[in-house]
Amino acid sequence: MELRRSVRGLGISIIVATAGIFFLSPELLRVVQGHLSDKLYFFSVAGPFLAHVKLALFAALYIIMPWIMAVLWRAMGKPFGVKGSQLFFFVLFTCLLFYAGTLFCYFVTLPLGIKFLLGFGSAELQPVISIGRFVNFTTIFILAFGVIFELPMFMVFMAKVGMLTRGFYERNRRYALLLIAILAALLTPTPDVVNMLLMGGPLYLLYEAGIIILRVMRIK
Q1: What is the pTM of this model?
Q2: Which element (helix H / strand E) includes 41?
Q3: pLDDT tens for residues 62-118?
Q4: Which residues of 156-169 are buried (b: 16+ CB within 10 A; e: fewer)?
């Protein structure tokens, strides 16, 4: 019942925040479009409106993410007795890693990815970018980086509740590296090696950081 109330309150807050931020979405779009240095176009009557709604929803999720994480960890941790200071630890560091991932994507990966993709243009091949596609592209990849940066915390949680062990992570580094390479190839906005490394490199470092955290916390 408590979880249901939390989810209901969270849903209402997201709707209200989206509605409020919608009026600021033109400014947000100008900021995000700074990575593009080009004009955006729309090919349907409702295109601009829907793009601004999506951008407002993204901003609402971004702002309310600490609440989302608190509800998520409370639901995941309750069956395993994770509460109090331990729950606070998971919520705090999950939020920090999420925002670190999104900022890394926004300031590093996204500009390089867009520059690489637009580099295929020429005098005969000029880009005509839809506002809807651009908003989808940027928001999805920023959120994706935020989510994958949560890796150490989920490693710690899985070990804490006894589902996996520190030894399992240590023994399977090569498989983790392979999975990270595949994930980076699927999620990066461009197929070149540089952008794959910009995602895969930090992700593998986070994997090692998860092992180090488990050692420091003496969780086997």
Answers
A1: 0.86
A2: strand 40-41
A3: 999 999 998 888 888 777 777 778 888 888 999 999 999 999 888 888 887 777 777
A4: bbbbbeeebebeeb
